[in-house]
């Protein structure tokens, strides 16, 4: 198979060597950036927001989930609504109802149009569209992966080091390493059929992986200095990236996503030039990747590991 070698213009870490962010952030505000028009909206102190499936609505909490208020913004019209006491906006179940986590309970559904609230009594039964549940059901067998749709009407189980969803019904899987090597596969959830992509070295920390309809990428960049590989699904070409990329889970078709706390940067895989750089970690994106929201985030963590 064809192979080439490229390196990004700045190392993924430390951040000081990266190009400047696409837009400025004041360190406290919830902000929304429109990649299509370049419009930046400052919504005041708060956490990153979550977008409805169509990208029409954004829900966020400010100044924080413990003392703040839930808000909704119609990204297209500019209409803004207050939705009552705070919580953590987890995900939309459709274009008007957002799931909000509150303490140890199953959560509450909040309607962005009128603020109506409904307690959740059966979280697994919620309609979460095309999202799949991926879990490790046995503590004594951590490499056993169970993948199911949210109603639980279809389930796949298999041994793997890592598994994640990269498309409507597509999984990206790294097998349990043997002799320092792991196999990368894509798996069609509807049929269970697997397609081998590559055999790659894997460190004890595992791989960071991501993919979309045009590219698949994986990296052991958690173990500095790190190496990465990019597979072009149209040409079957591999690109070796010796400087390493912190590969993120998802990105728009035609681009690569990188970042230690989710999708922080977008890269043109043909040139390894950055086309978007977030000024903050843990950004939240609309499903079409047009809009991105940043805000103040507590806690820490990253994408490395199984």
Structure description:
The protein is mainly beta and 306 residues long. The chain has no helices and 27 strands. The chain has strands at 3-5, 29-34, 40-45, 50-51, 57-62, 69-74, 80-85, 88-92, 97-101, 108-111, 117-119, 132-135, 144-149, 155-159, 162-165, 170-174, 181-188, 194-201, 208-211, 215-219, 228-232, 238-241, 256-258, 265-268, 273-277, 284-285, 291-294. It has a five-stranded mixed β-sheet with strand order 1-22-21-20-19, with no helix packed on it. A hairpin with a 6-residue loop joins β9 and β10 (108-111). The model has no long low-confidence stretch (mean pLDDT 88).
Q: How big is the Rg?
A: 20 Å
Mean pLDDT: 88
Strand content: 35-45%
Structure classification: mainly beta
Main sheet: strands, sense, barrel: 5 strands, mixed
The number of E-state strands comes to: 27
Strand order, largest beta sheet: 1-22-21-20-19
Shape: globular
How much helicity do the residues have? under 10%
* Low-confidence blocks of residues: none
Order of helices and strands: EEEEEEEEEEEEEEEEEEEEEEEEEEE
* DSSP helical segment count: 0
Distance between the termini: 28 Å
Key features?
306 residues, mainly beta, 5-stranded mixed beta sheet, 4-stranded antiparallel beta sheet, 0% helix
């Amino acid at each position: 198979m064809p192979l080439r070698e490229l390196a990004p213009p700045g190392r993924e870490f430390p951040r000081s060597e990266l190009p400047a962010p696409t837009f400025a952030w004041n360190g406290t505000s919830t902000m929304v950036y429109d990649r299509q028009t370049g419009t930046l909206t400052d919504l005041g102190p708060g956490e990153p927001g979550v977008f409805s499936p169509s990208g029409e609505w954004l829900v966020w909490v400010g100044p924080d989930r413990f003392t703040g208020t839930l808000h909704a913004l119609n990204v297209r019209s500019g209409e803004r609504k207050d939705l009552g006491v705070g919580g953590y906006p987890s995900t939309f179940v459709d274009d008007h109802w957002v799931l909000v986590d509150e303490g140890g309970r199953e959560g509450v559904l909040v309607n962005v149009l009128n603020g109506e609230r409904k307690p959740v009594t059966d979280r697994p039964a919620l309609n979460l569209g095309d999202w799949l549940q991926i879990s490790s059901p046995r503590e004594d067998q951590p490499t056993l992966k169970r993948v199911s749709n949210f109603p639980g009407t279809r389930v796949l189980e298999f041994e793997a080091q890592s598994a994640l969803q990269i498309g409507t019904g597509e999984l990206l899987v790294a097998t349990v390493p043997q002799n320092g090597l792991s196999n990368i596969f894509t798996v069609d959830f509807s049929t269970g059929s697997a397609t081998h992509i590559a055999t790659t070295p894997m460190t004890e920390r595992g791989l960071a992986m991501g993919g979309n309809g045009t590219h698949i990428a994986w990296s052991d960049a958690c173990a500095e200095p790190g190496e990465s590989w990019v597979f072009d699904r149209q040409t079957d070409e591999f690109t070796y990236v010796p400087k390493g990329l912190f590969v993120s889970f998802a990105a728009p078709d035609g681009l690569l996503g990188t970042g230690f706390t989710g999708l922080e940067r977008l890269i043109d895989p043909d040139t390894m030039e950055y086309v978007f750089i977030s000024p903050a970690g843990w950004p939240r994106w609309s499903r079409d990747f047009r809009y991105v929201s940043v805000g103040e985030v507590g806690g820490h963590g990253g994408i490395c590991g199984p």
